[in-house]
Fold each of these.
Amino acid sequence: MANRPATARYTKSHEWVIVQGDTATVGITDYAVEHLGELVFVSLPDKGRALKGGEVAAEVESVKAVGEVYAPVDGTVTETNSALGNDQQPLAKDPFGSGWLWKCKVKAGAGAGLMDADAYAKFLTTLS
């Protein structure tokens, strides 16, 4: 298990978000990466795209499956991790650091209703 950031908030569909001021950084969790297996492609949202929490924003493809990545919060995409287009290893090896997917501009309080790291860890124990 990776060292999950205490400052992140988590979804039941295994996305994480860290909000600092009006900027949210989004990625997928170590659990999601582990269950996808060997990653081969990442499709990220376009800069400027307005996202609604819960909508499909990106896709992560592995040799086993294509995983949809949902926006954990409402926001407008300001930046994507373009390095992942050529090399998915940062996502595979460091999903909470260099493997982030996109950043977006958010309103105050974004992510407040999501799970903290302890709640997410407890949630994972309910999965088979």
Amino acid sequence: ARILIDFVNRVFRLRSCELPVDGSFNYPCTMYYKRRCLAPCVSDLCTEKDYAEIVEPVRVFLADEREQFLLMLAAKMDAASEKLDFESAARWRDIQNAAEEYWSNSRTLPWLGGASDTIRTLVSDNGLDLFLVTQKGRRVLGERTYTFPNATSADISDAIADVIEQFYLFHAPREIRVSHPPARRKELQAILRERHGLSVPIVLLNENNQKLLTELAVFRSATDLEVKRSAPVVSAAKISRELRERFSLTVLLRRITAIDVSHIFGTDQTAASVTWENGSMTPDSGEYMLVENAGETAALAALVARRYADRKLKELVLIDGGRSQLNAAVRALPPDSNVELISAVKPPGKHSEVSHFLTADGRRIDFDPSSPAMMLLQKLRDEAHDLANAIHREVREFSNVYEWATILPSITESERQRLLAAFSTRAKLLGAEPQRLIELLGPERASVALNDIAAYRQNARPQVRPLVVPVTLQDRNGAADDLRPIENLRKPRR
């Protein structure tokens, strides 16, 4: 699935951010220059109609309707060629070639056509565990486990029926093999036929259709489940209580923000923050701020001041650094802030570790690797550090592209790119003859560009910095457990 997501993002260039866009941006974010987005945020680069035109074949591609997909691309290539728009025709051809190459590698295809599923159950003191294994030939594609804590062996048929009814909403396997006959078997087969337009047999396991690989997959899933159950359960509430006790917090806080700063040679700082609340990263996680010609503590204080100026958030804020960084953050907070501040101090020469924490009132608290709360703080510190570095790297790599927006803020992005293709460097643009600009933009727009260039020579406007939009995947452990779980629809029998 991750390979598919990357392919769609790279080939079709659909946007991956959640920003509300209406085409009014003056220039796109760095994802456009990475050729990972069509930039519907900038109307002269991609109109709503243009974006809808690419979304349409993506839907067909994701549905694995290959014949329809190729017919659709052929029609688009023919339409573009008739208009003598050979650039668009070539783009559709490249998409077709990329899709056919992607289809040719059967090992990376996520679609489950021809796959079979096996459902087995296990009853223990923990309740009823249901193991679902998907196979394609001899290859095990994946396993899922569902647990019904209050169910008994009398509920097996209902539990299997509930899983079949809820799990196969968007796909259907070639066959479903079950260890026990599900309740409402005929009704379930009718539901699957109506949903997917094909007959999906639900058959009982026997000596002929039991697969060794399936048994191994079920054994592995059951073992993993036992390991998880044997580990202590650390809830968000428990972590919050431990943080209050260890750091003598005045209130129970279930929201933590970590802030770190990245820089190049001591200048041009990037301060970034990530936020955790009640067990997962929050939608507002991924805030950052670019601070020019300032030190690390000044950049840190700037982000803290901006973040908490108007928000009366009750949260624990973790600063990466020592006493000077912590003091700078304390001074940046408004007087009526509800924030509790601490800092994480690294041991000498070990930048990925934490030796101890400092509190705003001067206490030192040694790092305890057996503490789930402290391990979470270290993880969040690392997340903020990685985000700050990633933002800073993108700013460094794309600064030259955004320099053209600094020089020419009054023309459109497509016009800027026309000039970039013609002149390639800032020096050539600044030395361009007016007649050449007229040839490229026309008299009226060339006049606007010349006025921009004159203002730039007089240092009349601030520099445009790269626009970076952090994108985070809410995936706690790589198993998509943040998706809605299947629940038993019926009350367990007594």
